[in-house]
Amino acid sequence: MKNLNLLSLLVTAVLACSVSHAADKIPLSKVSSVGGNINLIGQGKNTYEAMNVLDGNPGTAWAVSYEYGKCVLQLNPAAAGAEVTEILMNNGYGKDRNSFANNSRAKEISVYVNGLEPQNLIHKVTLKDQMEPQVVAIPATKNVDALFIKIESVYKGKKWNDLCISEISLQGVNHQVPAPVAGEVLKDSRDGQSYRTVRIGDQVWMAQNLNFTVGVNWCYDDKAENCQKYGRLYNWNTAMTACPAGWHLPSRAESETLVSFAGGSMLGGRKLKSTSGWSGKSDGMDPFGFNAIPAGFRKTSEHIDGFDWLGYATFIWTTAESMFDKSDALGLFMSSGGDRVELSDENKETTGASVRCLKD
């Protein structure tokens, strides 16, 4: 177990008056608002984005039009294995006293861990209506992939109903996470190429995308170097038989087992995505070593004709056909737009997507 950097002396002084908990700051990799639309405009780009709660400046804020039950702030610890014990926050718009009073502030909040289902609720509290930092002690909670703060009610602003929060940090400990369990190196006897493999739960997966020339396949942008870096893109019929002996394209159930092990569809993408290569600071944590890279795909449709989404998304075929359209098949989809991993459908013939083989 390792402790992280200490907070400033001011924060330490505040914590010294609170319940005794670990007082080391867990760094946050990103913050996003969920539900609540930003409605204040014309005062500078990104002025009221959720990331403002991490900028260390109380004069900026996350600001949304308050609507009961729909204003939720999501906080993602930067490292796997986080144990959270406290939330430290500057409520309201901290630019000055007038700004604080004129805009609404969070009053009653509910705290959820790793999802917004009822079983994920761990704490409810009424915040103080003050500009100064305040500490919210929560039940010590381990293995936090995301912490959701749902604003249930507000202290109404004198002039506007715009909910504002200036700063938030999490207190706790980042625990050491075991290194991924590497499997044997897979050497494809058909062309001599080797692939890293990894054990995830009871499954052994390729930790790289397949790059075997067979059937209908493409290199992204028709460049051979992209096949070396990202693997080939196959249509579904080819993908069904592309894996080497002793390995197979995963079924829907096998893919769902992987997603469940990673924490479910809502946040599992964060644990399966590679730690580099994703656009928009959306890299994953990859504690299992699955190393899902944003290989993009090839698609022919009314909207796309050719290669797209390199650096932004990945689609990995399964053996499952779509229940709604037999011309489509299912695959695991992850994107730079969030932490989700979900089964999505694409056309069997015209879509070129990645292949990850699973050991028999």
What does this structure look like?
- This protein is mostly beta strands and 360 residues long.
- Helices cover 11% and strands 35% of the residues.
- The strands form eight sheets. Strands 1, 3, 5, 6, 9, 11 and 12 form a seven-stranded mixed sheet that branches. Strands 2-4-10-7-8 form a five-stranded antiparallel sheet, with no helix packed on it. A three-stranded antiparallel sheet has the order 13-16-17, with no helix packed on it.
- The N terminus is likely disordered.
Feature tags:
seven-stranded mixed sheet; single chain; five-stranded antiparallel sheet; 360 residues; disordered N terminus; 11% helix; 26 strands; 6 helices; elongated; mainly beta
Strand content: 35-45%
Largest sheet: 7 strands, mixed
The best one-word shape is elongated
Report the mean per-residue pLDDT as an integer: 86
Which residues sit in consecutive blocks of at least 5 with pLDDT less than 50?
Answer: 1-24, 38-45
Produce the secondary structure layout.
Blueprint: H1 9-16, E1 24-26, E2 28-34, E3 62-65, E4 72-77, E5 82-91, H2 97-102, E6 104-106, E7 108-113, E8 121-126, E9 134-141, E10 147-151, E11 154-155, E12 162-174, E13 181-182, E14 186-187, E15 194-195, E16 197-200, E17 203-206, E18 217-218, H3 224-230, E19 233-234, H4 236-239, E20 247-248, H5 252-261, H6 268-272, E21 297-300, E22 305-308, E23 313-321, E24 328-335, E25 342-347, E26 358-359
Parallel strand pairs: 6-12
Antiparallel strand pairs: 1-12, 2-4, 3-12, 4-10, 5-9, 5-12, 6-11, 7-8, 7-10, 13-16, 14-15, 16-17, 18-19, 20-26, 21-22, 23-24, 24-25
